[in-house]
Amino acid sequence: MTDQDMLSVNTIRGLCMDAVQQAESGHPGTPMGIAPVAYTLWQKFLRFDPENPIWPNRDRFVLSEGHASVLLWSLLHLVGVRAVDPDYEVLGRPAVTLDDLKNFRQLDSRCPGHPEYRWTSGVETTTGPLGQGVATSVGMALAGRWLAARYNQDDFPLFDFDVYALAGDGCMMEGISSEAASFAGHQGLSNLCWIYDSNRITIEGHTDITFTEDVAARFLAYGWNVTTVADANDLDAVARAFHTFRAEKERPTLVLVHSHIGYGSPVEDSPQAHGAPLGEEGVRSAKRFLGLPPDERFLIPDTVHKDFAEGIGARGARLRTAWDETFEAYRTAWPRLADEVMRMQRRELPEDWESALPEFAPDAKGLASRDSSGRVLNALAQSVPWLLGGSADLAPSTKTRLTFDGAGDCQPNEPGGRNLHLGVREHASAAIANGMALTKLRPYWSGFLIFSDYAKAAIRLSALMEIPVVHIFTHDSIGVGEDGPTHQPVEQLAGLRAMPGLLVFRPADAAEVVETWRVVAALRHEPAALVLSRQALPTLDRSVFAPASGVAHGAYVLADAPDGAPQVLLLATGSEVSLALSAREELAAEGITARVVSMPCWELFDRQPREYRDAVLPPDVTARVGVEQASTFGWDRYVGDRGTVVGMHTYGASAPLKNLLTKFGFTPQRVAQTAREVLAAQQEPGPLT
Length: 689
Fold this sequence. Notes:
Blueprint: H1 3-23, H2 29-45, E1 60-63, H3 69-79, E2 82-84, E3 90-94, H4 98-102, H5 132-151, E4 163-168, H6 169-173, H7 175-187, E5 192-198, E6 201-202, E7 205-206, H8 215-222, E8 225-229, H9 235-247, E9 253-258, H10 271-275, H11 280-290, H12 302-333, H13 335-345, E10 363-368, H14 369-383, E11 387-391, H15 395-398, E12 419-421, H16 426-438, E13 442-448, H17 452-465, E14 470-474, H18 492-497, E15 503-505, H19 510-521, E16 528-531, E17 536-539, E18 556-559, E19 568-572, H20 576-588, E20 594-598, H21 602-607, H22 610-616, E21 624-631, H23 636-639, E22 644-648, H24 657-663, H25 668-683
Parallel strand pairs: 1-4, 4-5, 5-9, 8-9, 11-12, 11-13, 13-14, 14-16, 15-16, 19-20, 19-21, 21-22
Antiparallel strand pairs: 2-3, 6-7, 10-17, 18-20
């Protein structure tokens, strides 16, 4: 370590201590302990241009131990990363100013308590929930390898970036890390490096109280290369570890680094340094130990900025400029592929992509929406070459396999394949899809709706980050029959709908499936969940009923009263829409006029102007019945306090489908009877006021 290296490392430590102390909140110990490793990576190895932080072939750095965010904020400031706007334009201002750092964890600061994607340039993914960062990094590495397989040509190595993720003991304890590491080892992602900051401290104390496994042996069993750095302060050893990673061509690499939390502080290697400020005297004492002026705050010597400018700044600019020149030549030699690359970066679709969408003729027998979705997906994927994905071991059930010529399976020996085999790893599957989306691919993954619970944290992050991941779920209701309550989703729809920014679609027939994909494919900053049936749904005759283009509005009038003035509204989603249509016919035979409203996406409907929503659900028609094979939670805002819902109030049962539908009231007769009861209640005199 040179004197300048030591000064730069200790400047990072000083900034971290000062920011946490000023905020009176945060985690100073981890940033202080691992600062030498982060400095070495950024200054000596990372291929990243601070002037253009969204350069497509940049190396990615993921801070999986997101509670150490002040380390990242200090680096982004010292390196001089430029800000980027939502339209992917690089701005002239810094991503992180010194004032931002001084306002760490305060309202509107670009330095929040954990890294937030789309809020601060230089943040590759939102982290905080431990394990999410490393799992997401697997998707980034997989995407990098896929990009290289599709777009690299002789003399045009467009994509060869590496992905680094800094993780702690907590990340290694989380189950998602094991799922993701197992998948990465199988795939042989040699462009992936996890840096395990083994400081052996968590909030409750030393890890000996709960975490005594041999992590290195575990990763060797996963098929990883493992190298160990005995002391995080040994920059030469750290550099050797990164050289070892770069030399590895067959396996991902785990760099196991032994560090001391709160290095140089009076509470070194204690839980206090992990999760609380050091205190004013503690900060002064630590600075004295590090050779920093004890009473100077947010001190940045001039040579530190110069050090980073001559290191990562100069290297990144040189590499990015060379890449730009290569890409300009690539445009001439491979114009179609170059167009794809640029469309991907802007999250645009190819021209005329909608022409690939199929049409489905009316059919009383119909198709399961998982089957019609599979057909649409295959058609769409042929028009959008960077649309790819797979299933958590359920592709035969979710119908998400791409079957057209050339689709292929994404495996170590076929890195450009479009079909991923994600294994029984729902949580990691969603996080891997997040990483792929963050690398500008259009990914999807799939599983059973009941198991969306396993993936909920990663689904939430796709919504929080505003990235267009497609989460595909089948077996959407008690219609799975004999498998029983453990496989029959009840509360999952309500849970997904509760997530801000997630569009949840439950289409009623094949035509609605087509329109769902039309909406979803065009999304740029929103994820979507497709909730599809295993059982066949009649394909409605759209010459009789309203066109399925109403899906774009979230809900629409599918069948109306003859005079447009219904006595009762029947509201339904998915398979229950045809049930509501049958109930409407039964009511009509008695002279009761009903309007059937299909509500495939509540979130889109809620965004419509008040005039449209009132036209679909007239405020003066208070006799309303909602129908859905799921929890009734949330339906009250549509049926009102004078309506009711035919829904689920238990966890289902194991029985053939028809028996279940009868038991739980999902029959035309029950829906019609409920409508009669609601209408009768409207005619009863209200309470005296």
